[in-house]
Amino acid sequence: MTPSLLRPDQSLRLVDTYSPSAPARQAIIRVEDLSIVFDAPSGQVIAVDRVSLAVAQGEFVSIVGPSGCGKSTLLNAMAGLERPFEGQVLMAGKAMRAPRPEIGMVFQQPHLFPWKSVRRNIAHGPRALGKPKAEALRIADDLIEMIGLTKFASAYPHTLSGGMQQRVAIARALANQPRVLLMDEPFGALDAQTRAVMQDNLLELRERINATIVFVTHDIDEAILLSDRVLIMSAGPGRILKDLQLSLPRPRSSAIVAEAAYLALKRDCLDLIRSEGRRAFEQMEVKA
Amino acid sequence: MSVGRRSSASATARLSVLFAVLSVPAFTGVWELVARSGIVNAVLFPPPSTVAVAILEWIRSGQFFADLMASLSRVAAGFAIGAAGGIVLGVLTGRFRLVSSLLSPLFHILRPIPPVAFVPIVILWFGLSETGKLFLVVWGVFFTVWLATHIGVQKVDRGLIRAAQMLGTPQPQMLWEIVLLGALPYITVGLRTAVSISFYTLVAAELAGAFAGIVYRIEIAQQNMQTGQVMGGLAALGLLSFVADRSFATLAERAVWWR
């Protein structure tokens, strides 16, 4: 039997720190009173409703909510891909109006350039920022080694499995050395085994690069496993219901999700969500 | 029972190969017999043997290669200019709403006019010069390639563009790498259609008045009642256009190299 990462007596300390105004502490990325409205045939739809949050340097924050709750829209706004209807996103104190290379993004689909090899896909960012070719390729080779795809450096994306493609997408996003990495359900399209491996890879990676990560998922297990903090969102309109501080020990591995202590912890977490946002929770359970 | 069905299926397959091999010789044989039988006027409907003699004579005189080069250079130059213009403007109208609003209505009005209809005005503008012929081929090729590129650019995976934006891709690289290559599968389809169109317009251009070319040779032969030469010209044109289409299809498959 593998040694437990959690002591059975260890209780999860869940602290809800959500307040409508963003907490005043050292934040690398800050969302202030953000609303995003879409034009739909039936009229305007509020996708994100007056959301405020702050992510501290080095923090791993997950945003959890049911499908269509606006969590991806919120993440896109943090990436500069979506224009705020009201409010703003501040990156290191400056308002985000367009994508910036200091923010990296990994999407649910890998979106690799199909005409480029793995190596050139990863080198794309440094090249786009004007780095000399030799340097860009060196950065790419280092990252390829890190994600364990050295044998596939000159392979084209369509020859790789879904998990391998997503590893390349993560490496490509890291090639510009972003200060913040945004991940939009990056493992949502993968099968259960691959997803568990990818989660472990991400945990390892995080220990190594110490990046600030904002991670969107509808999977509460994934959120608890990976994060320091979990934000719970509700649907229609998208709002943040809870801001939960987790204190699981690190390093972690996906094996802990099967442990009794972890399950107790998840139950505590779900109880908290349930008491605050029954509707959002039920939609999430249906989804899961 | 299943064995019997399988053997009958393989018999059909063998028969099908035999038919395919016999198709052209059988047709030529029937043509030869009919033309020689006196049922039809052999001057107007010469047998294949007469056509073959006319083609050999055409090649031996050296005129065939001069005509071939004249026609090929018109098609090639017109195709290159029309395709380049169509791709560049298609990327711009497909990507930029304002450019599209400015140009698309105009292009959609001009596009359906058959290029052949421009022959009279082209003669007024350019006389019997090569410029006029080039104009007709360019006109035919341009709109086809423009439309295919315009649609292809709009169908480029939005995720690819967003990924490129997040990586700090500058606008020119976004257009001429991400958007252009993203639309390439559509563009190659448009280019292939444009190959046949360039041959249609070549016919109009050479009929309008030329001094060399395969269609020009057909017209001269018609005026001299050399029906064998007329049919030889048609065969040459068919073969040329077939070879161009086939080789372009092979090229197009290689162009989308990542598949």
Task: Give helix % range of chain A.
Answer: 25-40%
- The N- and C-terminal alpha carbons of chain A lie at a distance of 29 Å
Lateral strand order in the biggest sheet of chain A: 1-11-10-4-9-8-7
- Residues in β-strands, percent of chain B: under 5%
Number of strands of chain B: 0
* Helix/strand/pairing category of chain A: alpha/beta
The CATH superfamily label of the largest domain in chain A reads: P-loop containing nucleotide triphosphate hydrolases
Order of helices and strands of chain A: EEEEHEEEHHHEHEHEEHH
What is the CATH level 1 assignment of the largest domain in chain A? Alpha Beta
Helix content of chain B: over 70%
CATH architecture of the largest domain in chain A: 3-Layer(aba) Sandwich
Tally the helices of chain B.
10
Uncertain runs of chain A? 1-12
Mean pLDDT across every amino acid position of chain A: 83
Radius of gyration of chain A: 19 Å
Count the helices of chain A. How many? 8
CATH architecture of the largest domain in chain B: Orthogonal Bundle
Structure description:
The complex is a heterodimer of chains A (288) and B (259). Chain A is of the alpha/beta class and 288 residues long. Chain A has 2 domains: 15-102 and 178-287, P-loop containing nucleotide triphosphate hydrolases (Rossmann fold); 110-177, no CATH class. Chain A has helices spanning 71-79, 118-128, 133-146, 162-174, 192-209, 220-226, 260-276, 278-287, and strands spanning 15-16, 27-40, 43-56, 60-64, 86-91, 94-95, 103-106, 180-184, 212-217, 229-234, 239-245. In chain A, strand 5 and strand 6 form a beta hairpin. In chain A, helix 2 packs across helix 3 (133-146), helix 3 crosses helix 4 (162-174) and helix 7 crosses helix 8. Chain A is globular. Residues 1-12 of chain A have low confidence and may be disordered. The longest helix of chain B has 37 residues, at 171-207. In chain B, helix 3 crosses helix 4 (97-110) and helix 8 packs parallel to helix 9. Chain B has 10 helices and no strands. Chain B is mostly helical. Chain B is 83% helix and 0% strand. At the A-B interface, strand 7, helix 2 and helix 4 of A face helix 7 and helix 8 of B.
